[in-house]
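Throughout our pipeline, every protein is held as a single compact record rather than as scattered files. Nothing more is needed to write down the fold, since each code stands for a local backbone conformation. For reference, a complete record is included directly beneath this paragraph.
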Amino acid sequence: MPKNPRQTSKAAASAAAKVLASSKSSKAAKSAAASALSQTPSSKSKKK
């Protein structure tokens, strides 16, 4: 699988996590937030 060079910033990942945690967020918003979080850098890549 090719690597995805695009990664979500820490601020955007934090906002996305808040959207997912909110019960008032729409289904579309939660889907977009999940997509953003799937593009965050993994902790494994930081250990190199």
